[in-house]
User: Fold Pentapeptide repeat-containing protein from Streptomyces bobili.
Amino acid sequence: MARTGAGGGSRARAAAGGGSRVKGARRPEVRLPPLEPYDGGGLEPDGDYDGLEFRERDLSGQDGGGARFMDCALSACVLDGTRLHHARLLDSVLIGIRGVGTNLAESTLRDVELIDARLGGTQLHGAVLERVLIRGGKIDYLNLRQARLRDVVFQGCVLVEPDFGGARLERVEFVDCALKSADFTAATLTDADLRGATELGIAGGLDRLSGAVISTAQLLDLAPVLAAELGIRVED
Assistant:
């Protein structure tokens, strides 16, 4: 009888989205070699940047479309309107960057740490993010439509109206992260762990959360929105 009860409890927890069934994200392990200070001019389209440190550089309005950044560090750089469409950021660290309208559409970020960023209107639609850690900072109106995220962790950051429309999220974690008015319309979620979100606001795509796990408290908070989505009237 005890064994049967324990098994039933396990099945109940699994049905409720127990953590044992969620595959955790693999975090990046970035180990930068000794870096050379970048002393060149502006960014160049299809440029090749390897083992360089960009420190306190104003890269506003520059065009680095198609460029490759390998084993690089960008620290306290300004990226207002910087064009990095189709760029590749590999085994790199971005610390304290800030900017509005940075264009990283259809770019690739692999084994990247983004720390304490202050960004607004960043374009990452159609991008590929794999083993990426976004820690601290605040990002407003992040456009991740049609992007592919695998092994991505949002930790201790604030995301205001992020757009995941049509995106594919696999092994994505939100840890101590505030999600304000997130849109998951037409998104596909697999092993997406929302339980650690300190704030979980969903503006669209509630019907796409079947591959996500949330906590009981979050479920209660979302109950009014879920009822409205399903056309349920709640009256006492």
User: Anything to note?
Assistant: The CA atoms of residues 46 and 67 lie 4 Å apart. The mean pLDDT is 90. The longest helix spans residues 2-15. The two ends are 40 Å apart (CA to CA).
